Amino acid sequence: MLSTSHDEQCMKRDLSRVEYAGVMAGVLACVSSLVAAMVVFAIVACRAIRNLLHSLKGERIPRKIFATHLDVYVMCLLFSTSTEAVGGILSAIAVHTFLVVTSRWTPPKGFRIPIVVIVCALLYRAALYAAVVASKRQGIPVFERTPLWCTISNDYGWGRIPTAYLWTGISTAVSTVLYVMLFLYIRGNLVINSTGFWRMKLRKAPPPIEQVGGEFSMNRQSLKMLAYPIFNIVLSVPYWAMRWSVGYAAQNSIRSPWYFVCVLPHYAGGLGIVILLRLTRPTLLGRASSQPKVRVARESSEPKFAHPDPEQIADAECMEAS
């Protein structure tokens, strides 16, 4: 059913081979995201039962489900993989990681900060959509059917900018900048002054420590930081660029397979997030580490670094001596 006007009348037509293949691929991508998220929720539930049994027996709990702020962010991220709130939560994870690694920030034990961040991210979009709906004019619907999705109609096109494109652009830019800085910092190429993270400089790094302890590799750890911005860009930028071009053109059919190539990564975002977190932060959401912890970072789920700045070490030693 494809919309041709503002009324409820729709025209029926057969989908082309490209559209049919794209729709089927989109459905499979969405189902894979949902299944991946549900599997994680089931695993987390099993870990919660495990922790409860350990607690009843008076035994030590391997790891709490919500042990750090990142656990809260990740759980919300899995719940919101089908909405544009994903970008905001990924940015929150980027800011949290950046502050912990570069500023040696120790998050408070409570979860007030992540709860406030998540609520603000959700309220931002809810408030904007409420404003669009409140501005509805008689006879002109707020949402309209366009090829294969429902979006804010052209008559309220101003609402698309802050609710989708601005949100996506800012969150992607923040995530990319912070993770690239983390990549350079972990490798020792970026020096951040202990008196303020805005005072920074680039330098030629010392020879990298390739291996620390059992299985910690400096190159792998630094490259993990690049996985997040790459994932965020692939997930959001082609999707919204294609929706912008097709949506504002008000086309009634999709002839190019490149449209589906651009939007399918977004539909499979849930599966991608699960794989990304499993590869880069395996100890989140109650998973106990099977390897002895190397005390290079405070938390095994945090990025580790092995190139402290000599000037920072000297400053710290002077402060201790005084």
Automatic annotation (TrEMBL):
Keywords per UniProt: Membrane, Transmembrane, Transmembrane helix
Coiled-coil residues: none
Keyword Membrane: yes
Domain of life: Eukaryota
Membrane-spanning residues: 20-44, 88-106, 113-134, 164-186, 226-246, 258-277
Protein known as: Glucose receptor Git3 N-terminal domain-containing protein
Organism in which the protein naturally occurs: Exidia glandulosa HHB12029
